[in-house]
């Protein structure tokens, strides 16, 4: 599911700017449409995440996939700038399929196995993101290539919708096998979690049957209540760490090609190869999360602290590098530390905040990352006025602040499950 999702999206996204310009849009209009998409993602991710906690993962995931497919279908028939902009609306609001899928995984696996499963999920997504642009670039060479690529992407989403529709059958079979065998191994799906998931789905079905017009208002009220619970909870420091580390990493990549050319005279092609190399290593890091978490005895806080410290050190190494080989060395290990850090921060959010609102927590986390994507280009532009090494140097400072926040709140991170939402 995650592989197909990002494979389809990454086929289309790199070609969108070329397509909208071919429709006669100016650079400013193209930038405004791109910004509006980001703003919709920022505000909708928390709401959709809360909604998935209320109505159930299957219903919300199916709705998001189908509406995203509609957006890419409209993109495939967009022959005007207006239709192009309209096609981005359903995708901007409902393209949270990966976040809901992660919430579903957190419902089904034990807390001990969550980093391993999330790591493999991210690895599969990364493989799709690596292969998608290659296939999309090949298809766009054909006549009407962009339209064909968009229709293929929409078809992939419809295929994913079919897989989600079939998912409850496999869950039920897994649950019945575990109940019969009495198997309590931590490396398999939890029968209790699956039973609770079915119970939640049945409850949601009862709510939906109360009335076609009443049910949406009940859902909206419940979503707002959960969002209020997040706002009143003691989770600000975890989201602050996520924001700081996200901006630090984005600053590292923000002017990478330009900095390589100014500092070492490297062509953009070499920078592209180096970034693809880092993405491939990120896939490997996701597959190695299991042995790494066992090495750390499943202490997510300590693993996050060490990976963040390593990330900070490697960005500093890149900012002060005197040769291209130092850049390659830093990029090699940075692929591992950032992949591990992203997985650990999600696991820590769910551990401290509680699995009962995993969709809400992942939605808020996605909003926090979206804020980072908005802030990072501004900070990069300002710091780059002083030096090509300005953005990564600023990233080092932000990463140090994140490490300081983690050390100050060490007691809370180490005491699992003590922080709960106010409405639970």
User: Which whole number gives the mean pLDDT?
Assistant: 77
Instruction: Kindly identify the CATH topology of the largest domain.
Output: Growth Hormone, Chain: A
- Second rung of CATH, namely the architecture of the largest domain: Up-down Bundle
Total separate domains: 2
- Quick one: CATH superfamily of the largest domain? MFS general substrate transporter like domains
In whole angstroms, the N-to-C terminal distance is 31 Å
Give the overall shape, derived from the CA principal axes: globular
Radius of gyration: 22 Å
Percent of residues in helices? over 70%
Low-confidence stretches: 169-214, 417-424
Proportion in β-strands:
under 5%
Total strand count, please? 0
Please write the string of helix (H) and strand (E) elements: HHHHHHHHHHHHHHHHHH
In DSSP terms (H or I, runs of 4 or more residues), the helix count works out at 18
Structural class: mainly alpha
Report the biggest beta sheet as strand number plus sense, adding barrel if it closes. Answer: none
CATH class of the largest domain: Mainly Alpha
Domain Major facilitator superfamily (MFS) profile: 1-413
Membrane topology: Multi-pass membrane protein
Subcellular location: Membrane
Family: Belongs to the major facilitator superfamily.
């Amino acid at each position: 599911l995650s592989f197909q999702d990002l494979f389809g999206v990454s086929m289309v996204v790199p070609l969108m700017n070329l397509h909208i310009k071919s429709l006669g849009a100016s650079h400013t209009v193209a930038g405004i449409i791109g910004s509006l998409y980001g703003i919709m993602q920022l505000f909708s991710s928390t709401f959709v995440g809360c909604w998935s906690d209320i109505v159930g993962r299957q219903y919300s995931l199916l709705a998001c996939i189908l509406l995203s497919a509609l957006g890419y279908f409209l993109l495939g028939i967009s022959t005007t700038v207006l239709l192009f902009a309209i096609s981005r609306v359903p995708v901007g609001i409902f393209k949270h399929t990966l976040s809901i899928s992660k919430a579903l995984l957190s419902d089904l696996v034990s807390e001990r196995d969550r980093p391993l499963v999330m790591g493999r999920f991210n690895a599969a997504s990364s493989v799709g993101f690596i292969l998608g642009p290659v296939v999309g670039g090949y298809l766009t060479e054909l006549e009407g290539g962009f339209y064909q690529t968009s229709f293929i992407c929409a078809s992939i989403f419809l295929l994913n919708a079919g897989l989600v529709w079939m998912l409850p059958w496999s869950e039920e079979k897994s649950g019945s096998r575990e109940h019969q065998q009495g198997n309590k191994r931590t490396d398999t799906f939890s029968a209790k979690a699956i039973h609770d998931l079915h119970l939640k789905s049945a409850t949601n079905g009862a709510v939906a049957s109360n009335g076609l017009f009443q049910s949406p208002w009940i859902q909206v009220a419940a979503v707002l209540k959960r969002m209020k619970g997040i706002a009143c909870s003691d989770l600000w420091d975890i989201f602050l760490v996520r924001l700081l580390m996200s901006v630090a990493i984005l600053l590292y990549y923000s002017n990478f090609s330009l900095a390589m050319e100014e500092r070492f005279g490297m062509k953009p092609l070499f920078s592209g190869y180096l970034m693809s190399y880092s993405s491939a290593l990120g896939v490997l890091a996701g597959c190695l999360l299991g042995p790494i978490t066992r090495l750390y005895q499943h202490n997510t806080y300590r693993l996050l602290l060490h990976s963040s410290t390593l990330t900070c050190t490697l960005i500093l190494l890149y900012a002060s590098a005197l040769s291209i080989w130092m850049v390659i060395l830093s990029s090699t290990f940075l692929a591992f530390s950032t992949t591990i850090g992203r997985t650990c921060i999600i696991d820590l959010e769910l551990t401290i905040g509680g699995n009962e609102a995993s969709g809400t927590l992942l939605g808020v986390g996605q909003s926090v990352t979206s804020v980072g994507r908005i802030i990072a280009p501004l900070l990069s532009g300002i710091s780059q006025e002083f030096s090509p090494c300005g953005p990564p140097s600023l990233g080092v400072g932000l990463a140090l602040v994140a490490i300081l926040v983690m050390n100050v709140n060490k007691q809370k991170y180490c005491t699992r499950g003590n922080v709960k939402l106010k409405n639970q």
